[in-house]
Design goal:
Blueprint (H helix, E strand, L loop, with lengths): L14 E5 L1 H11 L4 E4 L2 E20 L2 E18 L3 E11 L7 E7 L5 H9 L2 H18 L1
Antiparallel strand pairs: 1-3, 2-3, 3-4, 4-5, 5-6
Helix pairs in contact: 1-3
Length: 144
């Protein structure tokens, strides 16, 4: 028989929700900085998390833990290599149901004509962003 995962007051483990938003924001603020992607001689690296809005929670339903989250955020980045510039990668919405298919927008501050390589490199960070969220969710489920 599986160990009970809810609070003492919820001995049957029917339903419980724990707010992990503050914890998740701290994870995102540190783990999303320093992501790097190189494409066609251009290296893009995230430098800081700007706006980070949303919530996360651990749900315990019938004794089983599940994670839920929804965030929108701005990741500031800079580039080096063949093209120098900077910008913001905006994740309009990422959630537990959209990890494989979340939308982003790229804003670029660079010399005219260099934006296509920067856009490709910055958009290439999406796989790394997904991995950060997946790891944070696994850690959240283990700790909460």
């Amino acid at each position: 028989m599986a160990a009970h995962q809810g609070s003492a007051w919820n001995a049957a483990g029917t339903f419980e929700e724990r707010d992990t938003s503050k914890w998740m924001k701290q994870q995102l603020d540190t783990k999303l900085v320093g992501l790097r992607r190189e494409v066609e001689g251009v290296t893009v690296e995230t430098t800081r998390v700007g706006r980070c809005e949303g919530e996360s929670r651990v749900l315990i339903v019938r004794g089983k833990k599940r994670a839920g989250f929804e965030y929108s955020l701005d990741l500031h980045w800079r580039s080096s290599g063949a093209v120098s510039g900077s910008g913001v990668l905006t994740i309009t919405e990422i959630s537990e149901t959209s990890l494989d298919d979340f939308e982003s927008e790229v804003q670029i501050d660079a010399p005219h004509g260099s934006s296509s390589k920067l856009r490709i490199a910055a958009t290439g960070l999406q796989g790394d962003i997904r991995k950060v969220f997946e790891a944070a969710v696994q850690q959240m489920l283990a700790e909460w």
